Amino acid sequence: MGKNRLEAFSDGVIAILITIMVLELKVPHSPDFGAMLPLWPVFMSYILSFVYIGIYWNNHHHLIHVVQEISGGVLWANLHWLFWLSLIPFVTAWMGENHFEAGPTAAYGFVLLMCAVAYALLAHALVFNHPKNATLAKAIGNDRKGKLSIALYLIGVVLSWFSAGMALLVYIAVSVMWLIPDRRIEGKVTEGIELEESAKRDAT
Amino acid sequence: MGKNRLEAFSDGVIAILITIMVLELKVPHSPDFGAMLPLWPVFMSYILSFVYIGIYWNNHHHLIHVVQEISGGVLWANLHWLFWLSLIPFVTAWMGENHFEAGPTAAYGFVLLMCAVAYALLAHALVFNHPKNATLAKAIGNDRKGKLSIALYLIGVVLSWFSAGMALLVYIAVSVMWLIPDRRIEGKVTEGIELEESAKRDAT
Amino acid sequence: MGKNRLEAFSDGVIAILITIMVLELKVPHSPDFGAMLPLWPVFMSYILSFVYIGIYWNNHHHLIHVVQEISGGVLWANLHWLFWLSLIPFVTAWMGENHFEAGPTAAYGFVLLMCAVAYALLAHALVFNHPKNATLAKAIGNDRKGKLSIALYLIGVVLSWFSAGMALLVYIAVSVMWLIPDRRIEGKVTEGIELEESAKRDAT
Amino acid sequence: MGKNRLEAFSDGVIAILITIMVLELKVPHSPDFGAMLPLWPVFMSYILSFVYIGIYWNNHHHLIHVVQEISGGVLWANLHWLFWLSLIPFVTAWMGENHFEAGPTAAYGFVLLMCAVAYALLAHALVFNHPKNATLAKAIGNDRKGKLSIALYLIGVVLSWFSAGMALLVYIAVSVMWLIPDRRIEGKVTEGIELEESAKRDAT
């Protein structure tokens, strides 16, 4: 099975997820700007989730880019990841509507946690199916960022019960960590692709 | 008519279907985790339908993969199948909200049944239009799994009136049956594709 | 501007339109099958609109298939057509919820009418931009079906005020007219494409 | 990173945005045409936003068309632009439901303003990454239309507090300005593409 349809399907689901969150922004019935004020937690949740889904779309793109074939196992690892991603609009709305109270903030962190775990499983399924793909192995590396994120999400979930604001800061910190370009790794991948391509050329 | 736009359109509809189900997960207004508890049948229905739509997407991909041309009849067989698929979010929400009572559980099974029947019709329309495509014939084979599923859905619909829990177990069993990779058949298809491709090469 | 992105964008919008109509099927709160009964006009409207959007998707595909370049005018003619198409879910829901009363049934016919007019404008914009494309001219021909449809929609809109049931029958008849494959024309198009391609080959 | 997936993802998000606005057209419960009358501001807002999103889709297409590679910065500039675009359905519904009162009309203008600013940032990010792409530089030019739009949106936002009708006229005027084909610029771009292509041919 080629990877094109998997990419197209994932892109479709991600595009829908990032967009339907806006449907949870309930239009206030009053024309006063004051009616907008109580919506700030909803907007803030929306922005955070928008950034998270954007980061995942970007990372997913790079991950799938370096492989050619998709096995049945990878396909289901991908669907499993999309499943957890699909819960983001739900927990985003719950957290926003309840102004970052303990329960919803913990639930939000839990879904982020499961997204990260599912993404790690997807990466491992890919490595399992492409044991000789050096570019892929390098691209994933020891996945320090991924492991750190999982640890921070766990901390965030626990923190929610003591201070939801602190938990939120942890979630924001993780997203910032992913936003900062990691040029060293990106360089490695590019280099790896070139190496592989030159290896292919040599083989022909 | 090429198959690319049919694939893209089907993927689009399936991606939307699998995602809008999440809109039926009504956000509880209370921040308590207790408010989540009554939602478990809704979540369980969501997971089951997510898996079903995932299976169909996967199978549809393999089915269309082996043909090149799409006739008007196949196009409408495909739309007919998408129509029944589009009712899944509706019956999922009805079943989830009513905690697996007899009526909604039977309706859920009925829609699954019609999806399976429509899928079988689509497969037959493809065979009818590609009578000489050996790979396609092999891929579909005598379609034991498909026929068994239809029988099980029928049993599930009837069972709903006696025990909705048993009916649900039947639906889950069918999805598990499709999740287990059927390596023998997948092998056959791959082999068939290779045979056909080598036949093409010989012909040129 | 190439036609690929126009096709992809139109497919995306059409896939969403055909799917979000299902969101208007409000889930009944009661688990009784009796709760489904009052929904039959909603379901019937859904089926009719599903078929209509399916027909348009199919026709649009064939129309765009025979051209290569898209001008700014064609792009806006296409968006204008998508605009009227986007109102189908709205009038479908209004007609379904009000059990085919005069006003909503007339509004439904009016939107179908405008879709047909916008589609005819799109076809003319294409011909205007490809005056020498014989295949396109043949494919559109004198567009008897299109003109007949517009006349029938007009009759349907007027009929709605006397008998909504009769108006509905007119709308159904038009959809059936489009469902019946018009092999003579399809043959012409295929032939035309072959002619054009052979002409191109001769020119090179 | 190739531009195909960025184009596909942006198209997906834009197709969803332009379509979900129709979900904000709440179906009236009465079958009387009179029930439609109070909906005219909602319809008018819908049409205006439909045209705006159509213009952006068109412009985005032309902008991305002339580049080949997408850097991480461009990707995030694109997501930032999509973020502001995603708020259009929200402010459209708010403005429509409140019959063009001061607050919502100003908010609508503010979101249009931010879309234009984000689009300008995206264009600059592209130029920054393709300093030698003469076609891109020419295509963007001194971006008089873009700057004028930003100024007009600002005027519109301020005007809203004095006369929402006047502000609305300003927004409509900006959309008309973009709808009128700017043949001189389009000519330049086409010319530029030809120049570049001939330059490439010379280089080979």
UniProtKB/TrEMBL annotation, chains A, B, C, D:
It is found in: Membrane. The keyword Amino-acid biosynthesis does not apply. The chain crosses the membrane at residues 9-27, 39-58, 70-95, 107-129, 150-180. The keyword Magnesium does not apply. One of its GO terms (molecular function) is proton channel activity. It holds the Pfam family TMEM175. It is a multi-pass membrane protein. Keywords: Ion channel, Ion transport, Membrane, Potassium, Potassium channel, Potassium transport, Transmembrane, Transmembrane helix, Transport. InterPro entries: TMEM175-like. It catalyses: K(+)(in) = K(+)(out). One of its GO terms (cellular component) is membrane. Belongs to the TMEM175 family. This is DUF1211 domain-containing protein. It comes from Noviherbaspirillum pedocola. The lineage of its organism: Bacteria, Pseudomonadati, Pseudomonadota, Betaproteobacteria, Burkholderiales.
